[in-house]
Amino acid sequence: MSTLAQTMMTAARSSDSGLAGPGDLDRYHYADAPGVDRVSAPVWESAEPELGRVGRRAGGSRGRGLHGQLVQQLGQMIVSGDLGADRPLVPEEIGQRFEVSRTVVRESLRVLEAKGLVSARPNVGTRVRPVSDWNLLDPDIIEWRAFGPQRDDQRRELSELRWTIEPLAARLAAGHGREDIQQRLGDMVEIMGHAMAQGDSLTFSRADAEFHSLLIQLASNRMLEHLSGIVSSALQVSGAPVTGCDRPTEASLGHHGRIVDALAAADGSAAETAMRQLLTVHPEVERVVPAPREH
To answer: So what's the pLDDT on residue 11?
Structure first.
């Protein structure tokens, strides 16, 4: 095993990934803070009880403390439909309900406004915006949709988008002789192989995400690079397998290896075909996108 593979596998086993696995749909539900009674507020009565409190979990959501936790909670409530379009959000009531300061509420609402989830207007206040106004490519919104009631639609849409991005990226990458990146792509395949043999799905998923990120980088197209976050998000929220990247399999590993071989041979058509085959391992995808083209 290469030094890179050993390092990556050791790091994966010794740290908390933050990635959700199959069935881990309640990852943002927080425990009650010790000794604190929950305060009711009529405007929140339709929300699920578990989404109506913020606890002091170590590290906070995404390491952002109470501010990050409140963003997650409100974001999930909006995306899930618990807080519907045009619903007023009163900062004082939010602060009382979630037991946080007005500063935390104000900062959280600013973040949600930047994501297109809410709007704040003079003499109107802050209200939830309709889905058509959301930034659906925002990584947080992708995640909230993928672990909420819309998870099936979100994962299908992500798979369809990957079909428009990654085969093209693979074809373009074959035309750029960046041996350093190609070597690292090969390293990622090696790491995935070792991880699969040891049943280490965490290391496999990390190497897989790195593989696809490097491939888009190798394509040398800044527009595609801008969309690379979609691929990363798709790999992180794939709680139900819909493509060959969603779980370690010999077929998935083989397709990754064929992509590397095609890049080394500067064969864009073969690289594109291998990527399409990788994204069509699961039958569910075949109903959404066409079968791989023959060249």
So the answer is: 56
Alpha carbon 75 to chain centroid distance? 15
Q: Find residue 60's DSSP bridge partners.
A: 65
Query: What is the predicted pLDDT for the residue at 39?
Result: 30
**What number of residues does the chain have?**
295
For 18: left if phi > 0, alpha if psi spans -120 to 50, otherwise beta; the answer is left
Question: Residue 85 and residue 79: Cα distance in Å, rounded?
Answer: 10
- Rounded to 10 degrees, what is the CA torsion of 65, 70, 71, 77? 150
The candidate with the shortest Cα–Cα distance to 263, out of 127, 153, 165, 170, is: 170
**Segment 203-257, tens digit of pLDDT:** 998 899 899 999 999 999 998 888 877 777 777 775 444 444 556 788 999 999 9
φ, ψ of residue 119 in degrees (nearest 5)? -135, 145
The angle at the Cα of 77, spanning 152 to 46, to the nearest 5 degrees, equals: 115
Show the tokens assigned to 271: 């690289």
Task: Give the pLDDT score at 70.
Answer: 95
Exposed/middle/buried for residue 271 (C-beta within 10 Å: 0-12, 13-18, 19+):
buried
DSSP 133-170: GS-TTSHHHHHHHHTSTTHHHHHHHHHHHHHHHHHHHH
pLDDT tens sequence across 216-228: 999 999 988 888 7
Task: Give the separation between CA 203 and CA 3, rounded to whole angstroms.
Answer: 14
Element (H, E) at 107: helix 102-114
In degrees, rounded to 5, the angle at the alpha carbon of residue 174 between the alpha carbons of residues 168 and 175 is 100
Whole-angstrom distance, CA of residue 46 vs CA of residue 23: 25
- How does the average pLDDT of the chain come out, rounded? 76
Instruction: Report pLDDT digits (tens) over 110-132.
Output: 999 999 999 999 888 999 999 99
